[in-house]
Amino acid sequence: MANVRRLVLDLLKPHDPGVVEFASAVADCEGVRGVNVVLMETDEAVQNVKMTVEGDTIPFETIRETVEDLGGTVHSIDEVACGAVVVEESETPQD
Length: 95
Fold this sequence. Notes:
β2 (about 30-40) and β3 (about 45-55) form a beta hairpin. The chain is about 20% helix and about 45% strand. The chain is an alpha+beta fold. It has one domain (about 5-80): Alpha-Beta Plaits (2-Layer Sandwich), CATH 3.30.70.1340.
């Protein structure tokens, strides 16, 4: 099976812990080289964030468990890049 190199996740998380702690905890997972978290929406009890994770061999189940241990939920996997290199999305006429 090819290595997962990038994951873009739609997460729902409580206000506490904050996005810095979420990003740091995921960045500490083996195989992860970098994490970016963007706050998309916030309401009284929760925040919706987009988390981009890059690395050489990203362990999705470990990432999911880490998010859940912090009180969050993975709503969806919005992008996955696998293989020896990360292939960027190409624009098509339909875009």
